[in-house]
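USER:
Before I trust my own judgement here, I would like a peer's view. Write it directly below this note and I will take it from there.

ASSISTANT:
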Amino acid sequence: MTAAPQQAQTPDPAALALEMLAPGGREDPYPLYARALEMGPVLDVGGGLYLVTGYDAVNRALRNPAFGVTGAQASPEDRDAHDAIGLLARSVLENDPPEHTRMRALMNSVFTPRRIAAYEPMVAEVVGELLDSLAESGADGAPVDFMTAFASPLPLTVICEMLGVPAADRHLFRTLAADLTIALEFVADPAMLLPADAAAVRLAGYFGDLVAERRAHPRESEDLVGALLAARDAGDGRLSEGELLANLTLLLVAGFETTTDLLGNGLRLLFDHPEAAAGLRAGRIEVGPFVEEVLRYESPVQLTSRIVHADGQELAGVPLPRGAQLVLLVGAANRDPARYPDPERFDPTRTASRPLSFGAGAHVCIGNGLARLEAAVAFPLLLARFPHLAPADTPPTRRDRVVLRGHGTFPVRVTQGVPVA
């Protein structure tokens, strides 16, 4: 007796979305992204929710002014009930035009490409100091946590220097920033937001005190706090006091959280692909394309959200009603075979990659140039300093997140073990 042939399983976007939120999906979402891309660039999950997977569709959604951020992340009730959501709601991150245009234009004026490029010597100096510390800590072959010793303090030190945050205060921010970003995740239990709310109160209070101190004792050399404070105090309505504190907090958090993840993800890929490390050391692989490929292959930001604010909208031929919630799967778009040949292969020689890891359009990450600069300075100096850099016996751990993808710990050895190249 022959067995009846099995019927092909009907694709179910809703079930797939739930898998992405499950522990296995959080640990390794890429097989699920591949399945989603096979289903189509825009998937109707039901209940007014859509998953956007394709590169072109995500790119279009990020650039379409009819797809807004206001209301996409949280309801007005959530904003009132949670300090973290309320704080972020006053920043450029969670506002559409005209509020976004007003705030973003001001921030762009003090966060220019020329200003960022001028920080390259300072970034190299900080990298050198951290490499010295790594060498000292691991001199006897003991494992050192790369995340704690390098990946976190590098961008934290840089953004604090740019903001004018005193060195004595910088130890406060790693945990506070990590807690605040819980508010960007999918949270099933409101109690999970308690650390984020506490962090928001402390961060807003800190910057309130810093602004008050800076008003009382202005500095001759202008940092980002001074520049934004001057704009706030100009009295022209470009920035309210609440918006000043919210955007300073955002600059601090966004200024190092994603870069920390970029550095950790990049190191993991160097260990997994020793030929890439050898190519970087020998100059056969340029660091710029390498960083872009890390961003594409292991995006620090895996997804973002939008809400449809106008009638008559569509993406990839799929009609989208007003009020539809869009989950833009950046991590999937960066591995779309319609955009990237052999997308599951890590290839740091790709050209014109243009990953969507820092967004696109009006809401493109204001600090993306700084993150790229820090990574481009850090990786060659790291590899040159430690020719026998290798993972320690204890494996690295991933942070249990959906939106932000990075490592919690990453033990390495800098003087013993098998070299990466």
Notes: The mean pLDDT is 91. The CA atoms of residues 179 and 195 lie 6 Å apart.
